[in-house]
Automatic annotation (TrEMBL):
PANTHER family: ENOYL-COA HYDRATASE, MITOCHONDRIAL (PTHR11941:SF54), ENOYL-COA HYDRATASE-RELATED (PTHR11941)
GO molecular function list: hydro-lyase activity
Protein name in UniProt: Enoyl-CoA hydratase/isomerase family protein
Family affiliation: Belongs to the enoyl-CoA hydratase/isomerase family.
Key words of the record: Lyase
Organism annotation: Halorussus caseinilyticus
Source superkingdom: Archaea
Gene3D superfamilies: 2-enoyl-CoA Hydratase, Chain A, domain 1, Lyase 2-enoyl-coa Hydratase, Chain A, domain 2
Pfam families reported in the protein's UniProt record: ECH_1
Length: 258
């Protein structure tokens, strides 16, 4: 296990929880923190976890964004390197071979919103406040927000959020499809842990294939996506979980997945 200063990676059975742990900065993401997240994702992947939860330490923030004190004096080449690092982390979440759930326990602004967008599912505490707030810092979303947000909430809403830098509450975010579910703050951890455990109990390869196929829906033409889906679908035949899942159904019993 690695020892990081600004994040924690905890395991509970087949579920890993990655907690951004810089509460005095509202979990803002500096370079060290992003690099630690990248390493932790690789470690959790090597461990073969069945689901991963991403959250922030403390009661106030999921992630209050990229680190503004670090960004203030960046040159264009330095900003480009920072953007590339943020993109690598978001891509690693999106391509993580098991589902990733964002447990949004408070402020999710700028880069924090963008990391949540890269997750498979977003569950927010009632008190969460979310936004792509970069415009009022004189910049735009730089870790994927301009691309992932419209896919989730539609073009018009994405433009409203990004142009106005609006900070919306969990209820609004839910109504616009930015989060899938809202729960009371004191139930967030338990609820997300339950979701993650349920997912981790599903057939691993099938879940990875489902995630890969769904990711492709945004990447390619429908025709190419359908070809991709057929390949992934057929590739699951002969796996233990496919044989077992179907046999269990036909024998009217619970399946025992690998
Ligand atoms: N980068 C660096 N530091 C940050 C930060 C960020 N994104 N967000 C918060 N902090 C720091 C604050 O500067 C403050 O530091 P200090 O104690 O040395 O003064 C500390 O975290 C606590 O934040 P504070 O603003 O005092 O808390 P608050 O409860 O009054 O307000 C927010 C919380 C989240 C509303 C406010 O901090 C905020 O708007 N943050 C910036 C959000 C943003 O635009 N993020 C996008 C960046 S791309």
């Amino acid at each position: 296990m690695s020892d990081w200063e600004t994040i924690r990676l905890d395991y509970d059975g087949d579920v890993a929880t990655l907690t951004v742990d810089r509460p005095d900065r509202l979990n803002a993401l500096n370079v060290d923190t992003l690099e630690a997240i990248e390493e932790a994702l690789a470690e959790a992947q090597d461990e073969g976890v069945g689901a991963l939860v991403l959250t922030g330490a403390g009661d106030d923030a999921f992630v209050a964004g990229a680190d503004i004190s670090y960004m203030q004096d960046l040159s264009t080449p330095e900003a480009q390197a920072y953007a590339e690092l943020g993109h690598r982390v978001a891509d690693a979440i999106e391509q993580f071979p098991a589902p990733v759930i964002a447990a949004i326990n408070g402020y999710a602004f700028g880069g924090g919103c963008e990391l949540a967008l890269a997750c498979d599912l977003r569950v927010a505490a009632e008190s969460a406040i979310i936004g792509q707030t970069e415009i009022d810092l004189g910049i735009i979303p730089g870790w994927g927000g301009s691309q992932r947000l419209p896919r989730l909430v539609g073009d018009e809403m994405a433009r409203r959020l990004i142009f106005f830098g609006e900070r919306i509450d969990a209820q609004d975010a839910n109504e616009h499809g930015l989060v899938g579910e809202i729960v009371a703050g004191d139930q967030l951890d338990d609820h997300v842990a339950e979701l993650a455990a349920d997912l981790a109990a599903k057939p691993t390869y099938a879940l990875a294939a489902a995630k890969e196929a769904l990711n492709q829906a945004h990447e390619t033409s429908q025709e190419a996506g359908l070809r991709y889906e057929r390949r992934l679908w057929s590739g699951l035949f002969g796996t233990h979980d496919q044989r077992e899942g179907m046999e269990a159904f036909l024998e009217d019993r619970e399946p025992e997945f690998e």
